[in-house]
Amino acid sequence: MTEDVQPERTGRPTKEFAMTRGTGPDTGEEAGATYRAVRLEQPGELSIVTTPRPRPAAGEALVRVAYAGICGSDVELFTGSRPAAYARYPVVPGHEWSGTVVAVGSGVDGALVGRSVVGEGFRSCQRCPACRRGEPTVCHGAYDETGFTRDGAWADWLCVPARLLHVLPAGADLRSAAGLEPAACVAEACLRLDVRQGDRVAVVGGGTLGLLATQLVRAHSPAELVVVHPELDRSDLALACGASRLVLPGESEALTGRFDAVVEAAGHTGTAATAVRLARRGGRVVLTGIPGEHDVLGTRDLVTDQITLHTVFGAPPRAWVHAVRAFAVGTLVPARIMTHEFGLEQVEQALRTVADPAAGAVKVLVRP
């Protein structure tokens, strides 16, 4: 458990420090109760299943899921287009979520019960050199992540290692908090980009990642913050997230070499090259998007313009801490980009909404 916000001591008896069988004191549920989950048996085959309520093992926490997000990776998992090394079937999807701890296993502080939380997804080995450097997203062990290789949050309940949890302030908006996982990914991008007051900054991509990055960058008081996106109807939302303006990709040609720092958050063929082109000589660029096909980035301009280039895959603990703190003080408000919400039984409709450009979806939520 990461204490981004110090938990209030509740005075609960010490016996709750090892609640391996009981439910949390405020759940109204009985041990042995069943719960609903969306199970993906194989690509394209979803069903709502009822199974026994999970019980937290040693080191684990049981979370009552409040909201779960859907992103393009979930669509890939559903269609079967996600690379085989990064998926397992059958599985309960859901790597973006928020909820409340209702029980803990042995070895976990009982003060966690009743707290609002979000959680990291990567189940790293904690032993390899990468993990010891604080970079669990590039763990040398086999890929293992909640919602992809382990059952996730498209369910009433979720069991996760307590060490992966981040505690939210009392009274936190759990609907908004469900967007903290993608926010943590771009928080790492912003940390690597090292935006400074007065910088000119561009964000390539006005989707979920790009708009969350825009909010985080705005907190650093840039002189200019431009979002590059192919749809002008995203302008109002970009401005609400802190952008100075939104420009179309074609219009960005006139901005070549203008920006001190550039975040690429689109993940389409050619958007990495656009990001590099927008950076000034000696500027900084971070790539977060993963194109669906092979992409090429020329090195000549990178070298001759002395561009510092970073890449990000997932969110390490420091990025989660950054995102949760920004959320706690109000500079990051994921709720601003939440456009659609569906019940658990409507998850196929939710997936279609995410995949349909005509739907105009940004962040889509499932509420168990």
What does this structure look like?
By secondary structure, this protein is of the alpha/beta class. It is built from 10 helices and 15 strands. The protein has helices at 72-79, 129-132, 174-177, 180-193, 208-218, 235-240, 271-278, 300-304, 317-329, 347-355; strands at residues 34-42, 45-52, 60-70, 97-104, 116-119, 157-161, 165-167, 200-204, 224-228, 245-247, 259-264, 279-287, 308-311, 338-343, 363-367. A hairpin with a 2-residue loop joins strand 1 and strand 2. Helix 4 crosses helix 5. The protein is globular, with a radius of gyration of 21 Å. The two termini are 24 Å apart. The model is unreliable at 5-29 (pLDDT under 50).
Quick rundown:
The chain has 368 residues and is an alpha/beta fold. 22% of the residues lie in helices and 25% in strands. α1 (72-79) crosses α10 (347-355).
